[in-house]
Each structure stands twice: as C-alpha cells, then as structure tokens.
C-alpha cells in the first residue's frame, strides 16, 4: 500500500460506518438525499447536457474536442439507497479523460421508494436510445459498488441465452466494475469475517438495503444478485477490487464461475485497497487502474470488437 492509500484508509476508519448497524442503516432512507452536481472543473472540460429518460434525470458528458465512437454509461454506487457523491464524479472524469468517449450518467431511482425493476425499465429505454442514436458506437457499462452490481445484472440479462431481442440491448460491448456488489444476499461467512477491516461496509446494513432494492423479487434473483445468474455469454469484463473490501470473497466466486462458464473476466485485486479505492484518484493504485481502462477503451476504437478482450489472471 502506498503512503497516500494508507492515510486515506486510516481517515476512513475514523468516520462512522452506518452500514455496520441495521438500526443506523435504516435511517439513511428517511433522510433527504441530494446528488452531488458535476464540479466546475468537469463543466469546463466537458459539454454537459441533461435529459429525462423514463422520468429520471440523465446527464451526458461529451468532450469539447474530438470524439470517438464510444459511449460509456456509468452507474453510481451507494448501497442502492445513497445518491451520487463527489468522489464518483472524480471517477467519471478519470474514465472519460483522454478517451474521446461520450459518458452517460443516469440517476436511477433509489430504495426504499424505487426498486430494481424500476432501474431495469430506465436502463432498457436508455440503452435502446443509445444504440438508436449512436449506432456506430461501442457501448461500455461501468459502475462502482451497487452501481457496478446493477451494470453486471443488466449484462447478465442481456447476455442470457433466453434474452429477447429487446433485452439484448442491455448487453454492453464491455464492462468495467469497481468493487461490485454482486450478491446482495450477504450469506457468505467470509464477508462477515472481513467486516472489521472494511471502513465503509457492513453486512447487516447491506442486507437491509439489498432486501429493499429487490422489491417483490427474491434477493437471490439474478436481477438483484447477478453473480447467481447465468454467467455464460458475458462481454469482456474487467473487475478492480480492493483486498480490504468485504465484497472481495463474493467477487472472487463470481469471477471464477464466470470464467468456468466461458466468459472473459479479468479480476485485478489490490491487496490493501479499500472499498471503491479508485475514488481516491490521487493514489498510484487508482491511477494505474484508470490508465488501463482508458487504454482498453482507446484500443477498442482502433482494432475492432475483439480489442481488449478480457483474460484470466
């Protein structure tokens, strides 16, 4: 762990972890939740337009210079109950910088008022619109934490052998997942064992909001817990995971099962990384991740759909 990452980890441990307690976690959904606006530096760097899709706000960031035939759809995390926060804008900025990609950021509805099927309705309309308006584009899905879990769930449904023609729009050309929440059942005992070392997550609070997010579905439904779905046929997928993140055990199981099913999944584990460590963009570890992602996106526009295909590590 670099010195910067070590300092950030210590500071995180000084903050209250409301997801450790179900009682404290319940309070999140009763408080006003306001999304962080794009910071000024992003507004200077990108042209930002706001639209409404399926009743939800969607921001589109386009480079002011040359664009490439790439669209990146980014889904923010927050245990399906928290709004987009400032570090997630930093992630979005880093992903877009130097790629020429158009970045689409939907603000999907949050629990307890909204559920996974609402998000799927939004994303079905949004992804179909992207394919219709930019048919030449390579379309990538990316996200952190819960948002990464939702991105994977969309890809699982869009890649399923039972997917309808309409559902196939959900299948991206590639996935970039940062500390994804792939199994909301939180039944893996290894997660509980890792809880003390995770400054941000807690099993009991996550179980609560995973159940709320599921709505009328079971928590083991693939829309809710995509690691439990059909994992064959996934597009090239890159997963970046911290070793001090209690999601790690489930992510490792997912990656192994997806590879066994023939899907090209690359998992990179940063041993001392905390949950969504890439949000701390000053760290050398984070910079290395963004360099790799940007290079993969650039390469995809130069050498066609097989460029940057994932591989086992």
Automatic annotation (TrEMBL):
Alpha/beta hydrolase fold-3 domain boundaries: 72-278
Gene3D superfamilies associated with the record: alpha/beta hydrolase
GO MF entries: hydrolase activity
Stated name of the protein: Alpha/beta hydrolase fold domain-containing protein
SUPFAM superfamilies: alpha/beta-Hydrolases
Family (UniProt): Belongs to the 'GDXG' lipolytic enzyme family.
Organism of origin: Pseudonocardia broussonetiae
Location of the active site: 145
Domain of life of the native organism: Bacteria
N-terminal signal peptide: none
InterPro entries: AB_hydrolase_3 (IPR013094), AB_hydrolase_fold (IPR029058), GDXG_lipolytic_enzyme (IPR050300), Lipase_GDXG_put_SER_AS (IPR033140)
Pfam families per the UniProt record, alphabetical: Abhydrolase_3
Keyword annotations of the record: Hydrolase
